[in-house]
Amino acid sequence: MAVPTYDEMGDPGMELVRVARExxxxxxxxxxxxxxxxxLKDLSALAGGSAGGSGNSYPxxxxxxxxxxxxxxxxxxxxxxxxxxxEFFGYNQLLTRRVVRFAFSSTSSAACLxxxxxTYYYHDGSGTLPVGGDKMYTATTGTAxxxxxxxxxxxxxxxxxxxxxxxVLGGGGGTAGTVGNSGSC
Length: 185
Known about the structure:
By secondary structure, the protein is α+β, with helices and mostly antiparallel strands. The chain folds into two domains: 1-95, no CATH class; 98-184, no CATH class. Helices cover 11% and strands 19% of the residues. It is built from four helices and six strands; from the N terminus they run H-H-H-E-H-E-E-E-E-E. Strands 3-2-1-4-5-6 form a six-stranded antiparallel β-sheet. The chain is elongated, with a radius of gyration of 19 Å.
């Protein structure tokens, strides 16, 4: 499990040792034993390391996690002072983006009319194809979310439809690019 988001925590407090566990790739909720001391300077260093005096050497920050404009949307440290624990809300050291092929339309029925797709986007879900709650992006960096609308999904390798569509949400508040409804073509 990644570091919880502000909304998932309910109480905005988080533990330094648990963030350190996530940073070494061991999972925020694991019982992995960390070596003291733990330095926020080292946890926040984009290049990783232990120059701030930590008992652990941390890998580089996973830059696939975006930086939000407000503290409750941050997903990774920005590498500059002041250092803040709140920059770790939702951070995932092991985050990867998966490729997805799609056909886009403003309606699900029109998206389902396309027989094959060669257009690629990326998503942050754990499955081959995105599902509800995953975010879709126009590039592997995750800097721009997919436009709101309906997407018929295709196998990333073969380009053959899997017979489903997903609706990508628009709007603000962090929901833009998030997969909402889904259905069959």
